[in-house]
Amino acid sequence: xxxxxxxxxxxxxxxxxxxxxxxxxxxxxxxxxxxxxxxxxxxxxxxxxxxxxxxxxxxxxxxxxxxxxxxxxxxxxxxxxxxxxxxxxxxxxxxxxxxxxxxxxxxxxxxxxxxxxxxxxxxxxxxxxxxxxxxxxxxxxxxxxxxxxxxxxxxxxxxxxxxxxxxxxxxxxxxxxxxxxxxxxxxxxxxxxxxxxxxxxxxxxxxxxxxxxxxxxxxxxxxxxxxxxxxxxxxxxxxxxxxxxxxxxxxxxxxxxxxxxxxxxxxxxxxxxxxxxxxxxxxxxxxxxxxxxxxxxxxxxxxxxxxxxxxxxxxxxxxxxxxxxxxxxxxxxxxxxxxxxxxxxxxxxxxxxxxxxxxxxxxxxxxxxxxxxxxxxxxxxxxxxxxxxxxxxxxxxxxxxxxxxxxxxxxxxxxxxxxxxxxxxxxxxxxxxxxxxxxxxxxxxxxxxxxxxxxxxxxxxxxxxxxxxxxxxxxxxxxxxxxxxxxxxxxxxxxxxxxxxxxxxxxxxxxxxxxxxxxxxxxxxxxxxxxxxxxxxxxxxxxxxxxxxxxxxxxxxxxxxxxxxxxxxxxxxxxxxxxxxxxxxxxxxxxxxxxxxxxxxxxxxxxxxxxxxxxxxxxx
Length: 620
Ligand code: ADP
What we know:
Blueprint: H1 6-16, H2 25-48, E1 59-64, E2 69-74, H3 81-89, H4 94-106, E3 126-134, E4 141-146, E5 152-157, E6 163-170, H5 185-196, E7 203-212, E8 220-228, H6 245-256, E9 264-271, E10 276-283, E11 300-304, E12 307-313, E13 325-330, H7 345-368, H8 370-389, H9 396-399, E14 404-407, E15 412-415, H10 416-421, E16 430-434, H11 438-442, H12 447-452, E17 457-460, H13 465-472, E18 474-475, E19 478-482, H14 500-512, E20 519-522, E21 531-536, H15 541-548, E22 559-564, H16 569-577, H17 582-600, H18 607-618
Parallel strand pairs: 1-7, 11-13, 16-17, 16-19, 20-22
Antiparallel strand pairs: 1-2, 2-6, 3-4, 3-6, 4-5, 7-8, 9-10, 10-13, 11-12, 14-15, 14-17, 18-19, 21-22
Helix pairs in contact: 2-5, 7-8, 8-13
Bound molecules: adenosine-5'-diphosphate.
Adenosine-5'-diphosphate binds at residues 29, 33-34, 37, 74, 76-79, 87-88, 92-93, 116, 118-119, 164.
């Protein structure tokens, strides 16, 4: 008896003890494995000119009520003894691993359906599972057998022909747990229709039927007949006008393991001399839980002439549309190997075509279904903005009209084009502000003057936003200006003049705060608020915040300017005490800086010192 690898053991335990209500998905998983095994052999036969045709392949389901077993049999590629060990003793698929991680953290058993949980799901319904397999071209067959937790055995066995036969010894039914249903022909038929109708090889089962006897039509006899349970026509080969939205949705949720129906379905095809393909693409409603991590793999399923070539062909999607799920079936030359797919020029054309389709769909949504587009942007907008920024902006022109920001003046999301259309003649720049929320941006001290001039302000909430705008540089020849940047470009700004007395005070404060700010000045942009922080140079305070969260970039600092409102009573106060009480001025300086840092959402180094200072001042 051999033990399962630790990882597999844990997934297996979850399966065995599963209280998951959709145990029925085990059949889908086994049929999909059988389908892959047939695909692999068919693919091999096309490459090596073995004389198979598609009609030589089938999947068979056998029910044995007496022995309470259910079998799934295929005449696909099969497995050698080593493959049985390697494939069934460890978790082969990253999906299963993700599933395990997620489960351990969330304890939410209902997410099982989101993942391709694979072969182990057989243990949700069985006490014991046997896999009898003979690899194509080998003479020996092997039997893998396991009752779950203890481990598994592999030994030599007899089997006619190649392929794999999986036998599930079903668990006994108990209260609230019915396993007998999987011995019912009717139920199995129903499950195949529900989950596996599109499998492109026949799924056959002997079905018991009754008919009138030939010699006496008052009497009935039972007989068995082999039925094909699935329709075998893949959805994408059917006529668009005959496919209902429900069918697309069902296909999406079953195939891509999502709970929610897709936000948008794109069913497209191209026929021509250069390229010939059918594609069904989906924009998910929600980003997958691992979407913004390095574990997420983008890609579309690629079939050629109905044979699955690869599960995830990454080259069919640009990174910025990496959220799209779906498949492409094309008449590519079949002798391309799975590895060289990316170098195929036909594939490049298909990819370009698909990108255009996705882009057109998004623009149409933006134009005609703004609410849906906002939903989309909430989930995947970061990706689009990142697309503008990455690779030194090569794709920025394709993407710049797809981004939206919240507008303070209009109190809704608008495009850059809409911002520019709303600009008055006097306004030279596109203004934006960074903040953690729209509400916090609206009340930023720096925002007051800009808004008072009647200019609109775009709210930048995500880390990537300012990087994307900096990459764009301008839109429609209008430069972007941060309200916390050096120069707002407002005429009123220059009005502030600093007297000699002011200069002395500001120099003194600058000396007190010299490690924290590079300059202290009287502000031209503040109206009622006492202080704010702005920055000089290209590297903004927001960027400093972003970089402080990344490894190896913590040392990067913006050149900060502390701006004080000359008309605020606090400045009057400082002026008054400046000559006789420098200690107080020091305290005021520190308090003003900390307040400005708080407004910017910057971390403060010594909160308790700040608290003591404020309380001391308040109790005077
Ligand atoms: P996967 O998601 O990779 O299918 P499974 O746990 O379901 O994960 O299966 C693990 C591996 O076992 C498969 O990748 C495949 O190589 C092999 N396998 C499973 N079922 C069969 C089968 N019926 N015929 C041949 N190989 C199979």
